[in-house]
């Protein structure tokens, strides 16, 4: 067992075992076991030993002192009921406005109807869970945001989570009448596509608000891979690098954003301070070098660099 002692504030997260595992408070037995199995495999000491990862002891400590106890609490139905009761009690005591001020997604949930809030809440938890253990040093911040979401959701969700609920339609049922098409009529119905690049971008915005620069860089790089000509992604990535005091890299991305869109408002805001003139060409070699450096930083940075107030 690891000899690393986790910070007390990390151990306090056990009051919300759902947040520790990165699952919603409505998760069932199958979802709880599946998530635990995924995390146990991800943080198993053997996995880190093979790659000589310096975070091996930290991963073992998180698995031993946080994830295993959280799973032990949630795998038993009666213990889950106790956990939900305690979270409900905290949700009643804590001020809703104060919670929403700490989490913009929570503020959005508060404005929705209960059925809409439930769907949005589940998707938000899934997004946070995807990034929760990518950087062990950022685990606490992400888990804290999941805890806030859980409390806000429990404030809005009055029925018993373990009682079967009747399905509620979000969109009123509409009577669909058959339509006859003549041979001269043409249909141009396109399937609705999910814009995954925008999802990465929205998650990056949330991480920027959390000052989680490492995860913000990862999300923006994924967005750029999918949509390499969107100036918004480059401008925000430039800002993230400026916040980490990577001035040279920030200049490269801000310049690239202006090359793609000379009217990009975020890029124009920081261009004068970087002595960038709209219309400047971006050196392809510099851009490729910046991308490779960004990849290394997102992989190895511990997110503890000092911040620049821009």
Characterise this structure.
With 310 residues, the protein is mainly α. Helices cover 63% and strands 0% of the residues. Helix 8 runs antiparallel to helix 9 (114-132) and helix 12 crosses helix 16 (284-300). The protein is globular. The two termini are 44 Å apart.
Main beta sheet:
none
Note the run of SSEs as H and E: HHHHHHHHHHHHHHHH
Overall pLDDT:
76
Strand content: under 5%
Extended strand count: 0
Q: Could you tell me how far the N terminus lies from the C terminus, measured between alpha carbons in angstroms?
A: 44 Å
Class of secondary structure makeup = mainly alpha
Structural key phrases:
0% strand, globular, disordered C terminus, 310 residues, 16 helices, mainly alpha
Compact summary:
The protein is an all-alpha fold.
Could you outline the blueprint of secondary structure elements for this entry?
Blueprint: H1 8-11, H2 17-21, H3 29-42, H4 45-51, H5 56-74, H6 77-93, H7 96-101, H8 104-110, H9 114-132, H10 139-156, H11 196-209, H12 213-226, H13 231-243, H14 247-260, H15 265-270, H16 284-300
Helix pairs in contact: 3-5, 4-5, 6-10, 8-9, 8-10, 9-10, 11-12, 12-13, 12-16, 13-14, 14-16
